[in-house]
Design brief:
The protein is α+β, with helices and mostly antiparallel strands. Among the domains are: 19-181, Alpha-D-Glucose-1,6-Bisphosphate, Chain A, domain 4 (2-Layer Sandwich), CATH 3.30.530; 219-248. The chain has 4 helices and 6 strands. It has helices at residues 2-21, 39-52, 151-174, 220-277, and strands at 27-32, 56-62, 67-76, 97-107, 111-123, 134-135. Strands 1, 2, 3, 4, 5 and 6 form a 6-stranded antiparallel sheet that branches. The longest helix has 58 residues, at 220-277. It is elongated and about 130 Å long.
Length: 302
């Protein structure tokens, strides 16, 4: 009898130790940052991300450590169908509900590290009953004791659930920073030389700790393109200013010409009025002294 109870006790202890080694399901995501981006700008974008995302809220933040925490959820509906597998009635409808998870993000030297963990499956009320996976742990197959259907179907449901979690958090990560702040080209260290046949033992080799192996180098093509764009903008601004100056000078000359023309017309009108105001002088006509005598009446006939 004692041997039986000792065996039962050892089996329970082994089962508990195996469960203790399993960790919660956790996903990590990173966002590479462009060099020379101020950290307070990244912190502001990260804070806005928590506040603007749907079905997500911020629970804590530490400004000195550049760290924030939050919670989020998404609606879950089991859509797994396998033609060759028969399940109990309404097995998929029993799992309909939400998956809630925790978020922790921190700004580091050249990346933002985001941790998604503590995924919990919470089914909603259903007239057919509820089936919950509870807290999702890092199992390769479906959690033991959670699914009472055919093993093939349960494994497919577990895989689908993890894929939906990854898709939701990856979609959220892409919306944290604008594309202009995300570094698309990542510097890769040059390949290591091919080792020779003879193995040379090096003592105190600290090449992997050198700072130049971890610095982010700017792409020369990107720098050249940026310089060309800046020069083109300066030239366009200079041409626009020159054209504006010429237009202003032309308008000024036309205005002066119109003013001179108006002044000339006013002066001519004034002179015409003065001429009209003066009295007209009549021309004196010399009188013929013989006009007072008629050719025939004033003389006697002989």
């Amino acid at each position: 009898m004692r041997i039986f109870f000792a065996t039962i006790f050892m089996l329970c202890a082994w089962q508990l130790s195996s469960f203790a080694q399993v960790k919660p399901l956790t996903f990590y995501d990173t966002i590479p940052i462009k060099g020379r981006t101020p950290k307070f700008t990244l912190y502001k974008h990260m804070d806005d991300w928590y506040k603007s995302q749907k079905n997500m809220k911020q629970t804590a933040r530490a400004r000195k450590q550049l760290k924030m925490k939050g919670k989020a959820f998404f609606l879950y509906q089991n859509r797994v169908r396998i033609d060759s597998v028969f399940t109990s009635p309404h097995a998929a409808e029993k799992m309909k509900g939400t998956i809630v998870y925790s978020i922790e993000s921190q700004i580091q030297d050249s990346i933002i590290v985001i941790t998604y963990t503590n995924f919990i499956h919470e089914p909603v009320y259903s007239e057919y009953g509820n089936v919950t996976y509870g807290k999702l742990m890092d199992y390769e197959k479906f959690p033991p004791g959670k699914c009472m259907e055919v093993e093939e179907w349960c494994s497919a449901v577990w895989t689908d659930m993890k894929n939906l979690c990854q898709r939701d958090l990856h979609t959220r990560t892409q919306k944290m920073l604008p594309k202009r702040l995300v570094r698309t080209k990542i510097y890769k260290a040059p390949p290591a030389p091919v080792p020779e046949e003879e193995v040379v033992v090096k003592e105190n080799n600290y090449d992997h700790l050198k700072l130049e192996n971890y610095l982010i180098k700017e792409d020369p093509e990107v720098v050249k393109a940026e310089e060309q764009r800046r020069l083109a903008e300066e030239q366009s601004r200079e041409k626009a200013a020159e054209l504006e100056e010429k237009t202003a000078e032309k308008e000024k000359a036309e205005a002066a010409k119109e003013k001179a023309k108006a002044e000339k017309a006013a002066k001519q009108a004034e002179e015409t009025e003065e001429e009209d105001a003066k009295p007209k002088r009549q021309k004196k006509v010399k009188k013929d002294p013989y006009d007072d005598y008629d050719d025939y009446g004033d003389y006697d006939e002989e």
